[in-house]
Structures are given as structure tokens and as C-alpha cells.
Design goal:
By secondary structure, this protein is mostly beta strands. About 5% of the residues lie in helices and about 45% in strands. Pfam families: Reg_prop.
């Protein structure tokens, strides 16, 4: 990061954010432009900064689980989406499509932002789909992941299953008819990834291994069990979330006990024993930066992997559990954590971009 930007970021730390939003009965929620200061303000904890995105215009977006959606233009934050009426504060994923529309996945369903207003989108359930037998999530409409594939279709991994959207209608896409999921007895997919060959990878808690779709058929790839340990309690995991394909073509996946790398022929696992940060090596997010360095976020900070060794960072994090990592166009690394923490990582230390509302 250059010196001028570093000085600006330091000055921004003394400022606070105050803003508002409005909504109408027809599910149109106006975006405000009242943010004049430069810290993301959290109302309560233990919510997360759950997801992040840099759009085509260089605007940074941060979705939180308790405090709505924030937009950062480099000088100020705007809290542009905060509506208890519409129950859209619990944001799980953000995605910009090829036309520049921002899709927002929330606990209460799907929303789209097209420059001025937000509109709620209803994904119809499959005909005769059984009700969710999970007593804690039977009312949920959660959207977990959104991707757009090379054929311009948009894919949604939801609590009620996977759906594709061709610009006109939604079509259900069944991965495993007999596979009950972690949060819904009808669904077993939370994360999706399209690789450079056009294969689509699917994964989620409750599965054995991951699934890969080549456009014609779906295969199930089994994974080595990795062990999560709490004191004397050991829990084995052989599910995974597909996270990214790196510059070498390797696929990286994660779960609650470590990560897997797939080189096209075999899976290699990495855990806390190999140097991953964390109490157990738990990994919730992986990115690759412009220099080909991999960054892993988990339950105890940030890990940097240069292909040979892990270097771990967490000193300035109030809560070290990381849920999202974003590299912006200037090469700066942003980290979102539990307790609605947002930090800018300068290569050695974390600069805090969150303030508690008084």
C-alpha cells in the first residue's frame, strides 16, 4: 500500500459513521448517501462481517449478520441496507453479475441492487418439496452462495436446494436426491465453485466429500477425514467447502479441521500440524492475491501461505475468527471477523475499521 493511502487510512480511524435508510411497501429499499465518516459502526455482537466484494467501479461492499450492508468508496462508509421490516440484516453472500448488478443473499432470501434501489427476488420451491425437518431452521430462506458460470447462468445455493437462473426463470438443480443436509433435510450444498474447465464443484456440511458436475453428470469425490478436537472431544470431518482455483489450476477446499488441495489427481490435506493458524486449524475463507499468495481465515486469525510454509497473524484482532477476506484493486487485504470486526491488513499489522455505537 502506498504512503498516501496509509496516511489517509490512519486519519479515517478517528471518524465515526452515522446514517440511515428508508424502505417502501413494495420491497423497494432506497440506498442512502448520508455516510460522512469512515468507520463501520456495529450495533451489537456477536455478529460477523460475513462477506465482502469489490465491484467493477472499485467500491467495496461488506455484508454483516447483524448490521446490514456497508459500502466503502475509499473515503467514507455508507450503511445502505438496514431494514428490520424486511429482515435483510443477516447477509451471508454478495455477488456482482456480468451486468454489474449486485446480488445479496440473506437469511430471509434474495435481494438485487441495480444502482438505486434494492428489490426482493423470490426463488420458487420445487413442486411437492417436503418441509424442512430441522426444527431450528424450518422457516429459514437463507442463501449461502451465488456464482455466475461461463454460460452466464447464475447459480444459487440455498437452504432449500440449488437453483439456476437464466435471466427469466429459476430451475432447481438436484445434486443428491438422498442427501440430507446440515441445516435442511432437503439440501446438502452450501458452497459452489466453477473451475477453469467449466466444472462446477459443490460442497456442504453433512456430505461425505464433495461433488463435481462436468455439464453432463455429477460425481462424488471422497475426502480424507480431518479431526477437530475440543479438549478430550474429537470430531472427524470429511465434507468440504470449495473455495477457489489457484493460478496453478489446483482446487482448494476447507472444513472445520483444515484444508484440501486437489491437483487434478489427488487431494492433499493441510491442518494445524502443518502450520495453519487456529485452535484446530478451522478454515472458513481462502483467497489468492495478485502475487499468487494464498490467505486462509479461520478461528484464530489469518494465515499466509507462499507454497512452502504458513505465516500467521492475529495480534491486533479483537476477535480472531475470520469469516471473509478481500484483496482490493490496490493490493490491500481486508478482513472481516466475528463481533462485526473489519480490519485492513498492511502486511504486518491490522488497522481497525470498526467502532462500537455508543
Amino acid at each position: 500500500m502506498n504512503k498516501n493511502r496509509s496516511n489517509l487510512n490512519f486519519l479515517l480511524l478517528v471518524l465515526m459513521l452515522c446514517l440511515g435508510s428508508s424502505c417502501k411497501e413494495n420491497d423497494q429499499i432506497k440506498a442512502t448517501s448520508k455516510g460522512v465518516q469512515a468507520k463501520l459502526i456495529k450495533k451489537r455482537s456477536p455478529g460477523n462481517v460475513q462477506t465482502s466484494l469489490e465491484d467493477k467501479n472499485g467500491i467495496l461492499w461488506f455484508g454483516t449478520t447483524d448490521n446490514g450492508l456497508y459500502r466503502y468508496d475509499g473515503t467514507k462508509f455508507d450503511q445502505i441496507l438496514k431494514s428490520d421490516k424486511h429482515q435483510i440484516n443477516a447477509i451471508s453472500c454478495l455477488f456482482e453479475d456480468q451486468n454489474g448488478a449486485i446480488w445479496i443473499g440473506t437469511e430471509n432470501g434474495l435481494f438485487i441492487y441495480q444502482g438505486k434501489t434494492f428489490r426482493k427476488i423470490t426463488i420458487p420451491l420445487q413442486v411437492n418439496q417436503p418441509s424442512n425437518k430441522n426444527k431450528y431452521y424450518f422457516k429459514s430462506k437463507a442463501i449461502f452462495t451465488i456464482i455466475q458460470t461461463k454460460d452466464r447462468k447464475i447459480w444459487f445455493a440455498t437452504i432449500n436446494g440449488v437453483f439456476t437462473y437464466d435471466g427469466k426463470s429459476f430451475t432447481p438443480f438436484v445434486i443428491n436426491k438422498n442427501g440430507g443436509g446440515y441445516l435442511n433435510s432437503n439440501n446438502n450444498i452450501e458452497y459452489m465453485l466453477e473451475d477453469k474447465s467449466g466444472n462446477i464443484w459443490f460442497g456442504g456440511r453433512g456430505n461425505e466429500g464433495v461433488y463435481r458436475y462436468d455439464g453432463k453428470s455429477i460425481i462424488n469425490l471422497k475426502l480424507q477425514e480431518l479431526t477437530l478436537q475440543f479438549g478430550n472431544l474429537k470430531v472427524s470431518h470429511n465434507w468440504a467447502w470449495p473455495q477457489l482455483q489457484d493460478k496453478n489450476g489446483d482446487i482448494w477446499l476447507s472444513n472445520w479441521a483444515g484444508v484440501y488441495r486437489y491437483d487434478g489427481g489427488k487431494f492433499t490435506s493441510f491442518t494445524k500440524k502443518d502450520g495453519l493458524s487456529g485452535y484446530n486449524g478451522l478454515v472458513s475463507k481462502i483467497i489468492e492475491d495478485k502475487n499468487g499468495i494464498l490467505w486462509f481465515g479461520g478461528d484464530a486469525g489469518l494465515s499466509r501461505f507462499d507454497g512452502k510454509k504458513f505465516t500467521n497473524y492475529k495480534k491486533e484482532l479483537a476477535n480472531p475468527w475470520i469469516w471473509t477476506i478481500l484483496e482490493d484493486k490496490n493490493g490491500a487485504i481486508w478482513v472481516g471477523t466475528r463481533d462485526t470486526g473489519l480490519y485492513l491488513f498492511d502486511g504486518t499489522t491490522f488497522i481497525n475499521f470498526t467502532a462500537e455505537r455508543k
